[in-house]
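Usage

Read records sequentially. Each one opens with the input sequence:
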Amino acid sequence: MLAILWTIIIGFVAGVIAKFIMPGSANEPSGFIMTTLLGIVGAFVATFLGQVTGWYPPNEGAGLIASVIGAVIVLAIFGFIQGRRRSTVL
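and closes with the structure output:
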């Protein structure tokens, strides 16, 4: 339970940092809540990939740097999907 809470906290910070690193265009989420959620998703992705590859033992979350990288990846994927969706609608 504590590992999940820690991942959420790190994900929040990672989402904010990732948004500063990759501000993106108007297609990407710029709201505080969406950025936080994508950062948390990025932290969970980084934790999962780290545990699968053996970098982190079970019940250990990713660190801040890995979470920021995960959040940047999630933001990039989300921005790409949003961009494609808007271009096909027009």
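Summary fields computed downstream for this record:
- Residues 1-84 form one domain.
- DSSP finds three helices and no strands in the chain.
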